[in-house]
Amino acid sequence: MRRFLDKLYLVSGALAAIFTVGVLVAVTMSIVTRQLGVHIGGLNAYAGYSMAAAGFLALAHTFKSGEHIRVTLILSSLPAKGRMRLDLCALVIACIIAGNLCWFSFKLVLDSYAYNDISTSDDATPLWIPQISMAVGTLIFFIAILDETIRRYKGIPETIQSEEAHYE
Questions:
Q1: Which residues of the chain have pLDDT under 50?
Q2: Domain extent listing, the chain
Q3: What is this structure's pTM?
Q4: Which segments constitute the Tripartite ATP-independent periplasmic transporters DctQ component domain (predicted)?
């Protein structure tokens, strides 16, 4: 199971990187076609869809890599037992927030599909299609936080090193 989850986070990060390249391609094409006097409808919209996909799909990989911003001032001043309790409490709260975000992301996709919502841009893309990346990204993020919460509850230390260790 551990290998599957680690692979899931890695694949999610790789997809985020691919969508980041998609932003670059869409913006570059937009610039080049504008200079050539050619109009390709929806390039700006697809750059936005790719940017959103990259952001949401990167959440889990970034979290598991220890790259999310954390305020460690209070944690570092507590004894080990207090640090573990506060960290566990923060992870449980993060699970609740990420779970809600995941739930409402999937609800948004289903609602957009049910109401046939389409983009108001030139591309007229059904909105549920680009919204899938948000829903999947938040689901994988929720799984990553739940995974870390369970690991900490079992007493398994953080899988990544703290921010301070990166700079020492």
A1: 161-168
A2: 2-167
A3: 0.86
A4: 24-153
